[in-house]
Write a structure and sequence with these properties.
Layout: H1 7-21, H2 30-36, H3 40-76, E1 82-86, H4 93-109, E2 113-117, H5 124-131, E3 139-144, H6 145-153, E4 166-181, H7 189-198, E5 205-207, H8 213-225, E6 231-233, H9 237-245, E7 251-255, H10 256-265, E8 269-273, E9 299-307, H11 312-326, H12 329-337, E10 341-342, H13 347-367
Parallel strand pairs: 1-2, 1-3, 5-6, 5-7
Antiparallel strand pairs: 3-9, 4-7, 4-8, 4-9, 4-10
Helix pairs in contact: 1-3, 4-11, 6-13, 8-13
C-alpha cells in the first residue's frame, strides 16, 4: 500500500505522541520537600522511583509503536517472496500438490511463491524449520496427513505439536484410497475376507509407510473383517507395488493417483474405494459399504500450515487466497485428475478435521494393539 509509514516512522510517531502527552511533575516547594525528605537516602530513592516510572512509560510507548508497525505490515501482506517448505523429496505426492498451489497462490497474492524441499526424519526436519520461523507469513508448510497424526503413531518424542506449534491455515485437498489386490487373491472384498480367514498364512497386506493412510486403513480393514494377517511395511509404495504385482503380498490400500493406473493395466484388481461415493475416475469400483463392509471412509489429504501466532490479518489473507484458488474450474479439474477433491476449509473447521483424524488413528492403534514405531 503506497504511503504506508516505515517501522522507524511509526516508532517516532508513537514516541512523539507519548512525549506530547507526558505531563511534567508538579514542583514541590523546597521547604516542604526538605521537611518530608530529611534524609538524603529518601530523596535518592524518590528520584530512582521517578526514573523507573519514566522508563516503564517509554517501554510501553516503544511496545505500542512496534505493535502498530506489526499491524500495518500484516495489513500490507504480502510484500516479499513467500517460501513454502515441503518436508519430503521432490516428485512425490506432497511435492506435486505443493507446486500446483505455489503457482496458484503466487497469482492470487501477487508475490513469488516458491517451494523448498527439506526432507528427513519422516518430514519432521522440514516441519520443525517452519515451526521455528518468524510468524510473518513468509514461511509456510505444505504436508500430508502423516504430519498431523505423527504424534499418535510415532514412538519418538516429536520436537513440535502439530496443533499447538503451528497456525492451521487450510485443508487443501483430500482423496480416497483404492483397495487393490493380486488378481488371484480375491474377486471381491467379501471373498478376500473369507479366504484370508480360511488361510491366514497365505494372505497379508502391504503398505508403503508406517502411520500413513494406507497403513492405518489396512489395520482398520483387519479389525473390521476380524482378520489375523500381517501388514508388511515397505520403504515406499514402489517396492510394495512390485511385490503386489509379483504375488508376494495380497493387497494394498493406496491413493488413486498411484493405484488406479495399476488396476487399469490389469496387473492388479480394484475391489473397493474408501469413500462414501463412487469416484469419477473409477465409477465401476464399489464403495466398501456397497461391498458389505459398512461405513469405511479413509482419506489421504494435504494441508497448509504456518508458524504459530500468525497475525490474524495475514492468516485471513492466506485462507482467502486458498479459497479463491479452489473456485477455479481448471484447478478443480486438476485435483480431480489426481484422485483428489479440493477442500479449502480453514480455521476451527480445519482444526476439528485434524483432531478427528488423530482420534480415528488413535482408536485404530488401541484396538489393533499396534506398537508405536
Amino acid at each position: 500500500m503506497p504511503g504506508t509509514p516505515s517501522l522507524a516512522q511509526l516508532v517516532l510517531q508513537v514516541l512523539g505522541r507519548c512525549r506530547r502527552n507526558a505531563r511534567p511533575a508538579a514542583r514541590v516547594p523546597e521547604a516542604i520537600t526538605l521537611q518530608r525528605l530529611r534524609k538524603r537516602g529518601n530523596m535518592h530513592q524518590t528520584r530512582i522511583g521517578s526514573m523507573i516510572q519514566r522508563m516503564n512509560a517509554l517501554s510501553a510507548c516503544i511496545a505500542a509503536a512496534f505493535l502498530a508497525a506489526s499491524i500495518a505490515r500484516a495489513q500490507d501482506y504480502p510484500t516479499n517472496t513467500i517460501r513454502i517448505v515441503v518436508p519430503f523429496t521432490a516428485g512425490g505426492g506432497v511435492d506435486v500438490v505443493a507446486r500446483k498451489m505455489a503457482q496458484q497462490l503466487s497469482e492470487k497474492l501477487g508475490q513469488t511463491v516458491y517451494i523448498e524441499n527439506k526432507p528427513g526424519a519422516s518430514g519432521n526436519i522440514g516441519a520443525l524449520s517452519v515451526a521455528q520461523a518468524s510468524p510473518d507469513g513468509y514461511t509456510l508448510l505444505i504436508s500430508a496427513s502423516t504430519f498431523a497424526v505423527n504424534p499418535i503413531v510415532s514412538a519418538e518424542h516429536l520436537p513440535f505439536d502439530p496443533l499447538n506449534d503451528f497456525s492451521q491455515l487450510a485443508l487443501l485437498a483430500k482423496g480416497p484410497l483404492l483397495f487393490i489386490v493380486y488378481p488371484d487373491a480375491a474377486s471381491s472384498v467379501q471373498d478376500f475376507i473369507t479366504k484370508a480367514k480360511a488361510t491366514p498364512d497365505k494372505y497379508n497386506f502391504g503398505t508403503g509407510g508406517y502411520g500413513s493412510a494406507g497403513h492405518m486403513s489396512a489395520e482398520a480393514l483387519k479389525l473390521r473383517g476380524k482378520l489375523d494377517i500381517p501388514v508388511i511395511l515397505y520403504k515406499g509404495t514402489g517396492p510394495a507395488f512390485s511385490d503386489l504385482i509379483g504375488g508376494h503380498i495380497s493387497g494394498i490400500l493406496d491413493p488413486l493417483i498411484t493405484s488406479l493406473p495399476l488396476a487399469k493395466s490389469g496387473k492388479v484388481k480394484a475391489l473397493a474405494i474408501s469413500d462414501d461415493k463412487h469416484s469419477p475416475l473409477a465409477p465401476d469400483v464399489p464403495t466398501f459399504a456397497e461391498a458389505g463392509l459398512g461405513n469405511f471412509v479413509f482419506y489421504t489429504w494435504y494441508g497448509l500450515w504456518g508458524p504459530a501466532h500468525l497475525p490474524p490479518a495475514v492468516a485471513s489473507k492466506i485462507e482467502a487466497a486458498v479459497r479463491d484458488v479452489g473456485k477455479s474450474p481448471d484447478v478443480q479439474k486438476w485435483f480431480a485428475a489426481q484422485g483428489l477433491e479440493f477442500s479449502g476449509i480453514s480455521g476451527p473447521e480445519f482444526v476439528d478435521f485434524e483432531k478427528g483424524e488423530q482420534s480415528k488413528y488413535d482408536q485404530i492403534m488401541k484396538d489393533g494393539k499396534i506398537a508405536r514405531q
